[in-house]
């Protein structure tokens, strides 16, 4: 039987889309070549175990058989595009997904790219692969469009339904075909002039976040050095009703959406635009924050007559975002690695992470939170999960460094 939708890639992009489509009544299948992803384990992924069960009960089915892709009306590519060590996007999984789809692609199918890519990915990477493998022509025989993902894990206000979707098609007809699909899932669709504009909108959104967090991270270091309470500064500044949007500093920037400079690409596909120097600088600043956290840790320990070597240090909250189990890009890993290199004895606590490894070595988990905080020479709050009683922790901890400004004023040392 034909399906309304095939979601290709069952990770942090694909599963929220599958959830929204199934809730909207679309017959949806999920394809992933990785049997572990297709098994939908739930724990640690973008959906909870309960959400996965509800999704399956609603009729969603997964498969590792690419033959299922030949019987769908719409196919959305949600393959991962992580950063390589040289900070270029790795498009290999996306290219593999496109080749797999191409050999099963049928006329009149709508193909949409949600995976992150450089401006031009839809036209210069995806289109040639689909046309070569299918013998069909994009814009004539099948619809091709880009609609970058805007999922914000854990956001209880902006869900799939009330978050506008930007759509850029290869042709006006492609745009309308994609708009007709997303109109069933979201209250508002925004039509871009084309796929490059849609891709660049995602680039702007991602880089905007990282640049503004970098500004706040620099302000955190500056304010500490001159003895100013940055958190009170933010509280005052965010009362301005125009020209200011509030961001918060922290021990680094995690998550799946990494900052992208289109000019940092392999030479054969290098962009002709000017380098995004502010993006480079923002990444440099944000990458420095774990080291700054270590500096603050050692200074606090020294001020209390202790050394980092041999110190018992408890890390609280090791995920990249509060109230989630997602460890993607979390700065907690580098903080832990640096502290361990200094000879500290580490433990961690996180209600969402039952086991944690850093560079292949396990970090012991504290079972009793208050006892661990009381026994530790230093407790470092990296992620303020809602389940934490921060006032109580501040009382129990011998020494508490709050990297998120979440504790009551005067209850801890703040970043």
Task: From the structure above, extract its key features.
alpha/beta, 415 residues, single chain, five-stranded parallel beta sheet, elongated
Summarize the structure.
The chain has twelve helices and 15 strands.
Number of strands: 15
- What's the quaternary structure here? single chain
Summarize the amount of helix as a percent range.
Answer: 25-40%
Query: Which geometry do the CA atoms define?
Result: elongated
Distance between the termini: 57 Å
Q: Which ranges are low-confidence, i.e. pLDDT below 50, for 5 or more consecutive residues?
A: 266-270
As a percent range, the share of strand residues is 5-15%
Round the mean pLDDT to the nearest integer and report it. Answer: 91
What series of H and E elements makes up the topology? Answer: EHEHHEEHEHEEHEHHHEHEEEHEHEE
Strand order of the largest sheet: 3-2-1-4-5-6-7-8
Tell me the radius of gyration.
23 Å
Helix/strand/pairing class, anyone?
Answer: alpha/beta
Helix tally equals 12
Major β-sheet, in short? 8 strands, mixed
Write the layout of secondary structure elements.
Elements (H helix, E strand, L loop, with lengths): L2 E6 L5 H10 L4 E4 L3 H4 L10 H9 L3 E3 L8 E6 L14 H11 L7 E4 L7 H14 L8 E4 L18 E5 L2 H11 L6 E3 L3 H32 L3 H8 L39 H27 L8 E5 L15 H10 L3 E5 L7 E2 L2 E2 L6 H7 L2 E4 L8 H7 L3 E3 L10 E2 L1
Parallel strand pairs: 1-2, 1-4, 2-3, 4-5, 5-6, 7-8, 9-10, 9-13, 13-14, 14-15
Antiparallel strand pairs: 6-7, 11-12
């Amino acid at each position: 039987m034909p399906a309304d939708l095939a979601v290709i890639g069952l990770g942090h992009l694909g599963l929220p889309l599958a959830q929204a489509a199934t809730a909207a009544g679309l017959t949806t299948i999920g394809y992933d070549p990785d049997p572990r992803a297709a098994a939908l384990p739930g724990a640690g992924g973008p959906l909870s175990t309960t959400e996965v069960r509800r999704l399956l009960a609603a009729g969603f089915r997964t498969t590792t058989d690419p033959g299922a892709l030949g019987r769908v009306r719409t196919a959305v590519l949600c393959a991962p595009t992580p950063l390589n060590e040289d900070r270029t996007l790795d498009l290999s999984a996306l290219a593999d997904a496109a080749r797999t789809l191409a050999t099963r692609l049928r006329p009149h199918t709508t193909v949409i790219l949600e995976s992150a890519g450089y401006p031009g990915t839809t036209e210069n990477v995806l289109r040639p692969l689909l046309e070569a493998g299918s013998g069909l022509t994009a814009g004539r025989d099948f619809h091709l469009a880009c609609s970058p993902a805007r999922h914000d894990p854990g956001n209880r206000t902006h869900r799939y339904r009330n978050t506008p979707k930007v759509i850029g098609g290869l042709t006006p007809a492609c745009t309308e075909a994609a708009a007709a699909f997303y109109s069933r899932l979201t209250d508002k669709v925004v039509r871009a002039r084309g796929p490059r504009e849609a891709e660049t909108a995602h680039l702007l959104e991602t880089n905007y976040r990282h640049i503004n967090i970098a500004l706040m991270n620099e302000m955190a270091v500056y304010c500490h050095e001159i003895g100013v309470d940055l958190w009170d500064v933010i509280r005052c500044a965010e009362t301005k009703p125009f020209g200011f949007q509030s961001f918060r500093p922290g021990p680094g920037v995690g998550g799946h959406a990494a900052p992208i400079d289109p000019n940092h690409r392999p030479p054969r596909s290098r962009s002709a635009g000017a380098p995004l120097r502010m993006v480079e600088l923002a990444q440099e600043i944000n990458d420095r924050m774990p080291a700054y956290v270590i500096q603050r840790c050692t200074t606090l320990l020294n001020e209390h007559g202790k050394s980092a070597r041999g110190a018992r240090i408890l890390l609280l909250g090791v995920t990249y975002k509060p109230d989630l189990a997602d460890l993607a890009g979390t700065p907690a890993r580098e903080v832990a690695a640096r502290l361990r290199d200094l000879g500290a004895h580490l433990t961690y606590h996180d209600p969402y992470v039952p086991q944690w490894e850093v560079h292949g070595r396990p970090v012991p988990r504290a079972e009793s939170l208050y006892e661990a905080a009381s026994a530790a020479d230093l407790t470092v709050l990296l992620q303020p999960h809602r389940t934490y009683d921060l006032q109580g922790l501040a009382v129990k901890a011998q020494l508490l460094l709050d990297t998120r400004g979440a504790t009551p004023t005067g209850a801890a040392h703040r970043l």
